[in-house]
Amino acid sequence: MDYAIVVTLEMIRAVAWLVLLSSGLAIIFGMMRVINFAHGEFLMLGGYTVVVTTNAGVNEWFAILVLAPLVVGLFGVLVERLVIRQLYGRLLDSLLATWGLSMLMIGGVTMIFGNTVQGVATPFGSLRIGGYQIPGYNFVLILFAALILTAVWVVLKFTRAGLIARATMQNPAMAEALGVRTSWVYMATFGIGSAVTGLAGGLLAPLTGVVPTMGASLVGQSFITVITGGAAVITGTLSSATLLGTISQGTTFWAGPVYGDAALLVAALVLLRLLPQGITGRIFKRSL
Amino acid sequence: MPLLEVKGLSAAYGLVPALHRVDFHADPGEVVGILGHNGMGKTTLMRAIMGFVKVTGGEILFDGQSILPASVNARARAGIGLVPQGREIFANLSVEENLQVGIATTGVDIAATVAEVLELFPRLKRLLDRRGGALSGGEQQLLSLARCLCRKPRLMLLDEPTEGIQPSINDEIAETLKVLTARGGITIVLVEQNLDFIAGLAGRVYAISNGVLDRQIPREQLTDPRAVSEFMGFVT
Amino acid sequence: QTETIKVGGLHDLTGALDMIGIPMNQVFQLAIKEINEAGGLLGRQVEGVIYDPQSNMSLYSQYATQMALRDRVAVVMGGITSASRETIRPIFHRYETLYFYNTQYEGGVCDRNEVTLGTTPAQTVARIIPYAMNLYGKKVYTVAADYNYGHITSAWVKRYVEENGGEVVATEFFPLDVAQFGSTISQIQAAKPDFVCSAMVGSSHLGFYRQWAAAGMKDQIPMISTVLGAGGNDQIMLTPAEGNGILSSFGYFEAVDNPVNKAFLERVKAEYPTNTPVVSEISECTYEGMMIWADAVREAGSIDRDAVRAVIAQGKTYDLPAGQVTIDPQTQHAIRDVYIAELTDQNFVIREAYPQSPPLDTQMVCDLIADPDANVHHEISL
Amino acid sequence: MTEVQTPDPGYRILRTRGLTMRFGGVTAVDNVDFDLRDGELRCLLGPNGAGKSTFFKCLTGQLVPTGGQVLFKERPITGMNTHEIVNQGIGIKTQVPNVFDGVSVYENVRLSARRKHTAPMAREVAEQTIEKCGITHLIRREVGQLAHGQRQLVELAMVLAASPELILLDEPAAGMTGDERDRLAQLVLTAARSAAVIVVEHDMAFIRQIAKFVTVFNRGAIFREAMIDDIMRDRAVQEIYLGKQADAIA
Amino acid sequence: MEKTVARDPGFWIMLAIGLAVMVLAPALLDMFMVLQITQYVVLSVFALSLGYIWGFGGILCFGQAAFFGLGGYTFAVAAISMGDTTVPLILSFLLPAAFGVVLGYFMFYGKLTDVYLGVVTMVVALIFWKLANHTAGPGYSIAGVRLGGFNGIPSIPTINIPGQPDAWLDPSQLFRFFMAVLVAVYIALRLLIASDFGRVSIGIRENETRAALLGYDIRRHKVIVFAIGSGIAGLSGAMWASYQAFIDPNAFSMEMSAKALVWVMAGGVGTLVGPIIGVIGLQWLTLQLGTMELLNSYVVLGAIMMVLVLALPRGLVPTVKVLALTGWTLWHSGRPGTKAAPGKAVGDD
Ligand SMILES: Nc1ncnc2c1ncn2[C@@H]1O[C@H](COP(=O)(O)OP(=O)(O)OP(=O)(O)O)[C@@H](O)[C@H]1O
Ligand SMILES: Nc1ncnc2c1ncn2[C@@H]1O[C@H](COP(=O)(O)OP(=O)(O)OP(=O)(O)O)[C@@H](O)[C@H]1O
Ligand SMILES: [Mg+2]
Ligand SMILES: [Mg+2]
């Protein structure tokens, strides 16, 4: 019984993990059709912001909830202005440029902070469930995954910003002709996506610690989650994270992490074969 | 003072010129028609006024002010609206959302504006929830027109607005546009192949040929296709 | 103006393993500097030829070839993972360039062209397992990185646990990029072992220690590791709350108490006052490698590979920071002092020392005296 | 297959039986029984959104009908893949031009001709068809850079170059001026001598030049089928479709 | 009217350069340089495989390394267990090509397009990568050859003369052989692209609907294109394994796939020379950066990639072509816009 609860909680946590990893990317890719290959490094930057500022004496929660999104969000705006801006509508070029950016960031962070930065402690202690103990921080992850999704939903649903962003993405020239300042839209979307990514990176830092190369293993997972989800940012991310998260975590419990990872990939493969436009390409089509 | 004044406008695609020293103007409330064969530069002219095509020479004055330095969206916000050739519907937005895009951030009463415009295009009313991309060709064309009108532009650039629209609705559109211009609120530059349509609306009509717009076609000639062809130059 | 003697340094300065490669390279350069300050070798200055293989095996192969054929270096120090060693070892063998591999590894290399200074499982695992079983109990749960090193090490763990009358309740392997360990931690809790033995490697796996601590397990089930502290920096990435109490075993820790080591660490500090490397076995062995090679060159009076090799194969004993080190002529591996240490506030405190431990595992499969032309990496079957 | 040759009144190059296409709640084509004789030129009229283009898409397999059957040369083709259907001898000009943007006009047409002919023949056919469509001066231009009307002609040339037995033209005259339209009408009439043709068009001036027997769609179903003059006079058709145009003709 | 391969001077120039390098390089350069360019040659074959399916088939594959690795592992296992390398080399083409057919069937008959296709290929490569990494345990061996997990398979034989397992090619012979393979692949692809099959591929790339409406079976066509690319990638993987004498899961890595993308992009999509130039330029650069340990090589490489994308968005070869063409036009017509008479129809040429 206890074990079942622990397993279930782990599964929910795995889903939350995927949601956190991929929300920012989903905003950027889903809205702008820009594959941000440096997404993993944006997460890394969020993590570094938390670790470095916390070690310098800043309150850990302040660092995670305010500084990480702020720093990464601003960095995102800068990147958009300097690089991404030139590359809209050119999916691959943006992929390549952001890939270059990813290397630049890895190298840059290594040069500034070296390879080792002491981690920060995981807040919240642990929680006892029968004979098991689980980190209380897990609940923080789950909470924030839910919060991020809700916030994005509210923005897209109840403000016109979402509409404008989607129109801009589909046909920027026509949106311009309707008076939309597309360059602002792009900048804001990219900035918000980056900020969400920064927040996620900040949240992950106490759990995994930070190293300059940490992004590499994260970007694949987030990318696959986003694409499997399909066009809709929220339902897409949520449905694919739920599906992939439970499948992979279930398999991990049952057969070990290698098979868990492999199961995630195979599940994504099968899903895309069945639903060539991702989950929300076919189901929940009209959702956000 | 004319609302739109195009002076000596030249434009090119790369090194290939497409417009040569085009001069014309449109006074407030006026409908100016432009006729021309395929590939003569009508669309290029419209896109140049809207700001999509790089201008290599000349001047465009809107309301007496040069708009050449302004971006496309700035021109749109200044009151220029384009109904482009090819409709350019936001395929994955619903019809209603398509109508809202242009006014989403302007602070006007969105619902009221949309409702007002829909009165002009009753056909669209029952399609509001449909995906833009799923509409039939004619329906898209109507949507494109309606979308432009939602912004209440002072100058409308219509690039073959009747293409793909059934005859009876064409008549209705002509009526609508007539009413709108008669009220004086709207000025129209109309590129059109449908002679009846242009004859019913336009005050002055020009012919464009190979990027050169230098002949005005007298109104009374418009009912005679042969005569019009002569003005436009026969197809080679 | 005599020509310099070139020595090659092939360590990952960027890429996944740079946190290990950078300190190795720093010590490598320090060794060259010391040799030159002492008048160089054979009246010539020594010059380091350093390439960065970027943790990429193709570049390893590339630069190894370049060092051997183009730069014609006298000796090469380098390689970290077994994969990188097995990439470059055949190249140096083919192009007759003496090669020092200075990393702790799974044992079994048998190649007269290679001198291997790092510890093998027979030297470390064989010591720490009985030590830990004595302290904590007989039920062991092993978690290991999913590659050769992890597999072989966990096989050794199992063998030594069983030899000492214990039981390995489970062994789990993790790909190097896995960073989430929630399910494993629950499973360990379910298995209730007396202690956990970790052969986890690399930065993603540090998350294991962190999540272990976050789950509040650190005070409930003790942990030992056959690899934490190998690279040098990993222990300072863990906060004291996460790392304190983990036992580890190597042929060198900074805490080794002898005058040679004290002086050595002071020179390291003097040379790198700002980004002082944490010296671990792997870096110290790199230093050893340079010193042993330099000594052999002096004695041979030449940098010729065969002459130098002949001297090294004599089985001399050297006084080095790690203590006394003897080259075993049978395997060209090091017979050395081995230590067990406990991580305490980001430093290893030595708990136990085992002087002059031989690489028994490799000795089982390799005899270069009998077969001088050997050129293989044996998988030591248990 | 011998009766194909005889002008058997029973033989129809195209038949649909109960053809239906639903998109969710929208029924775009509703239980249509449509017959076309070999060599016939048929005009298909109908209000916007009546289902004409959808009907074409069902015929060519771009959409798989939700109900009913399509018989081409008396053989069922429902549910087949587009290329299989097309290879039986159907060519279509779509409402929004579908052309190969990145390559030249010539290459576009040649690729179509090559489907039917040997390489040297294809070259010749392509050049002739381009000539026939009056776009020889554009032959080396990249199609993506052409004006709208020019692209329409390129697509038409592609359809003709494959010499299909059944030609479907969805609004071919859209965006054409008077004399261009006249020439297009001639082209269509010529083509109709060697193939069955269905033309969808809203341009009544064009329709008047080519139409004989006309089918009118409304709300997905066949509304009227009659000779053009009768259609033009039909009150109900005027009501739903023609508006004042009818007076102009009458 | 049509450009045939035989009438294209560019083709003959490329061929001449290829053959000249093949004959002369080993004689003129030292062994290290020969080994060095051998590497470029092998990777060029790999880049060509992607350059073909992407540039001329419109198939964007984010996981080209899946086939590269598959070819490499196939060759490694077969060559080690057979002793002779001839059959393994052929297998390393056939097996990945067959796998390409299967995967292509799965994708194209499932109507996958665009990024979704890219991601599926990427996922497949990742699965291979994961699985290959997972084969460290002693249980994983094929035909007696241990797969070795993360460490990979060492001691892979060099190419030998067919039927004579002991007659290994020395470095300069190996170079010549690989160069011959590259030239052969280049010629084959040029001919293929110029053939009707190749033109249809381009048509499909431009507009699938129209291609289908002309009666071309686009799914089957794409499967074939994809399989050819897969086979070539597999072959290059085998060459790579034999050149390096080892193969490890990195051959399947996302980095390897991405590198192929970068080479093709940098050189220019839609050309065959471009990918080759991309390989030479960027590999050389990576190498140089590793040699200077001054700056963190990531920083420099990353910056260069970004600059490349921003400055040469279409890739080197097409950009040079356009520049040359523009220069030529300018030189012939004086200043732009002034000379072309207004009366002359735009596009009347
Ligand atoms: N993107 C482009 N690049 C190069 N040339 C172009 C481009 N777009 C149009 N042209 C050329 O410019 C000329 C004018 O085109 P434009 O689209 O303005 O014609 P149009 O008068 O609108 O024709 P239509 O009646 O067919 O719509 C044509 O010859 C066309 O081929
Ligand atoms: N994919 C779809 N999903 C939902 N509705 C659709 C879809 N495709 C078409 N429709 C609807 O079906 C109806 C018929 O469309 P179709 O394009 O066949 O009309 P049409 O007769 O060609 O009109 P037009 O003359 O305007 O081109 C339209 O109302 C359209 O909105
Ligand atoms: Mg036009
Ligand atoms: Mg239609």
Automatic annotation (TrEMBL), chain A:
Membrane topology, as annotated, equals:
Multi-pass membrane protein
Taxonomically, which superkingdom?
Bacteria
Major location category of this protein: membrane
Q: Which positions, given as ranges, span the membrane?
A: 12-35, 61-79, 91-114, 134-156, 184-205, 258-276
Among its keywords, does the record have RNA-binding? no
**Cited Pfam families:** BPD_transp_2
Keyword terms of this UniProt record: Amino-acid transport, Cell membrane, Membrane, Transmembrane, Transmembrane helix, Transport
Instruction: State where the protein is found.
Output: Cell membrane
Q: Which family does the UniProt entry place this protein in?
A: Belongs to the binding-protein-dependent transport system permease family. LivHM subfamily.
This protein's name: Branched-chain amino acid ABC transporter permease
Gene source species: Paracoccus nototheniae
The organism that produces this protein has a lineage beginning with: Bacteria, Pseudomonadati, Pseudomonadota, Alphaproteobacteria, Rhodobacterales
Automatic annotation (TrEMBL), chain B:
Which keywords, in A-to-Z order, does the entry hold? Amino-acid transport, ATP-binding, Nucleotide-binding, Transport
Q: Does the keyword S-adenosyl-L-methionine apply?
A: no
Gene3D superfamilies noted in UniProt: P-loop containing nucleotide triphosphate hydrolases
Which PROSITE patterns does the annotation name?
ABC_TRANSPORTER_1, ABC_TRANSPORTER_2
List the SUPFAM superfamilies: P-loop containing nucleoside triphosphate hydrolases
Instruction: Give the Gene Ontology MF terms in alphabetical order.
Output: ATP binding
Pfam families with a match to the protein in the record = ABC_tran (PF00005)
Q: Which InterPro entries match?
A: AAA+_ATPase, ABC_transporter-like_ATP-bd, ABC_transporter-like_CS, BCAA_Transport_ATP-bd_LivF, P-loop_NTPase
Q: Which residues form the ABC transporter domain?
A: 4-235
* CDD domains reported for this sequence: ABC_TM1139_LivF_branched
Q: Which PANTHER family match?
A: HIGH-AFFINITY BRANCHED-CHAIN AMINO ACID TRANSPORT ATP-BINDING PROTEIN, HIGH-AFFINITY BRANCHED-CHAIN AMINO ACID TRANSPORT ATP-BINDING PROTEIN LIVF
* Protein family membership: Belongs to the ABC transporter superfamily.
Annotated protein name in UniProt: ABC transporter ATP-binding protein
Which organism was this protein described from? Paracoccus nototheniae
TrEMBL record, chain D:
Keywords of the record: ATP-binding, Nucleotide-binding, Transport
The answer to whether keyword Transferase applies is: no
Q: GO MF annotations for this entry?
A: ATP binding
Q: Which InterPro entries does the record cross-reference, listed alphabetically? A: AAA+_ATPase, ABC_AA/LPS_Transport, ABC_transporter-like_ATP-bd, ABC_transporter-like_CS, P-loop_NTPase
Asked whether the UniProt record includes Nucleus among its keywords, one would answer: no
Pinpoint the ABC transporter domain residues: 14-244
Q: What is this protein called?
A: ABC transporter ATP-binding protein
To which species is this protein native? Answer: Paracoccus nototheniae
Give the source lineage, highest ranks first: Bacteria, Pseudomonadati, Pseudomonadota, Alphaproteobacteria, Rhodobacterales
UniProtKB/TrEMBL annotation, chain E:
Task: Provide the protein's localization.
Answer: Cell membrane
Quick one: signal sequence residues?
none
Q: Which residues cross the membrane?
A: 12-29, 41-67, 87-108, 115-132, 174-193, 223-241, 261-282, 294-312
Cite the InterPro entries for this sequence: ABC_transp_permease (IPR001851), LivM-like (IPR043428)
Where is it mostly found? membrane
User: What keyword terms does UniProt attach to this protein?
Assistant: Cell membrane, Membrane, Transmembrane, Transmembrane helix
Recorded topology in the membrane: Multi-pass membrane protein
Q: Name one Pfam family in it.
A: BPD_transp_2
Q: Which PANTHER family match?
A: ABC TRANSPORTER ATP-BINDING PROTEIN (PTHR30482:SF17), HIGH-AFFINITY BRANCHED-CHAIN AMINO ACID TRANSPORT SYSTEM PERMEASE (PTHR30482)
Q: What's this protein's name?
A: Urea ABC transporter
Q: What is the lineage of its organism?
A: Bacteria, Pseudomonadati, Pseudomonadota, Alphaproteobacteria, Rhodobacterales
